[in-house]
Amino acid sequence: xxxxxxxLDSLVRKRIRALRVAQGWSLEELATRAKVSQSTLSRIxxxxxxxxxDQLVTLARVLDTSLDQLVETAxxxxxxxxxxxxxxxxxxxxxxxxxxxSVMRQRMTEPPPDNPSRMxxxxxxxxxxxxxxxxxxxxxxxxxxxxxxxxxxFPTMLPHAIGADGGPCEILGIxxxxxxxxxxxxxxxxxxxxxxxxxGPRP
Length: 203
Prior knowledge:
The protein is of the alpha+beta class. It has helices spanning 5-23, 27-34, 38-46, 53-62, 67-70, 177-187; strands at residues 83-85, 90-94, 102-108, 125-132, 135-139, 142-146, 151-155, 160-164, 169-175.
């Protein structure tokens, strides 16, 4: 749904106030930082003063955001359903705000590969958290035990693979654009941490 000017105007004012409160700043403190009067800022937040572009640019900078983010329209398209790959125990969600990123959930039952040749390296970064069970992350020549609720983040240029330890585990992973492409090139599918599926890519 396209918002009309009045709805967007109100949304921008609410964002300014919410960002100010999140910083723990009073009206006076933000006004001082933005070099506007406190009364002007109060009227901006309360809808009693027209929003001027130059003031919005200044407020966005002071509030540590961008003008684009400050005036971005709200989306009704909030809920996302996953793409399910039952064969590999995968659920994948796209990140709408950054189409290059993906979020994955995977259930693993196999340990990581013993053969280092089955570990893969590619550009990018990955972040994962173990939702249940225990995972083993093979990273270069090192072996990490990742328990439930623990997270790991690593550059994927290091040879890596991941698998379960002592029983099934579930993992949630976030891939940046390069890491996602690396998994696609390796296997034609995507997995969390272990390059396409539990224990790393299949031969």
